[in-house]
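Homework-ish question, so no full write-ups if that breaks the rules, but can someone show me the predicted structure for this set?
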Amino acid sequence: KQEVTQIPAALSVPEGENLVLNCSFTDSAIYNLQWFRQDPGKGLTSLLLIQSSQREQTSGRLNASLDKSSGRSTLYIAASQPGDSATYLCAAYMEYGNKLVFGAGTILRVKS
Amino acid sequence: DGGITQSPKYLFRKEGQNVTLSCEQNLNHDAMYWYRQDPGQGLRLIYYSQIVNDFQKGDIAEGYSVSREKKESFPLTVTSAQKNPTAFYLCASSMPSGQTGELFFGEGSRLTVL
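A: Not a homework solution, just the prediction itself:
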């Protein structure tokens, strides 16, 4: 079964700290991997999309890396702020079955 | 502004009733998707459409139906056959299809069965 796992399920950090969110996928044959942010009761906002041929993508204080061979992606958030508090989801587009598989998300709380 | 509009934001339904959730996009995207989100779980795909007048079942299509008569619109009907319809429903679109395209989401519709 193709699965995407996100660890930790929840994370609480003080403001200003750098942090890493982890995403692992069981099948290394993927087309791309996407990171999203979801605020309570809202839809998902796309943060970064990494194609299978890429190793990383950066947007402002966010950096996402992809290691297909080990089935892992990380989302690095620099100098965290209270406004970063949200649920972060990753999703891998699997070659087999041609489908997007989502992780359950990491709930991030940044304390001021 | 370009985006995806879902309506209604909140919907209450009595058991045995069918309800239709609207999804409209002005991004000129070919592909559209419906997902269901339950607490503590990843999003699960209900139906998707890669082109007008064509759609395919996702992982949990039972009890749901869709249509794609226009490129901009992809409504989802939750039928009385859906055994546990209370959930948060998310519509998304991408251009091109998901293999290389970035996925964009609407704000969601929360359905509660009374």
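Now go work out the reasoning yourself. Hint: Chain B has no helices and eleven strands.
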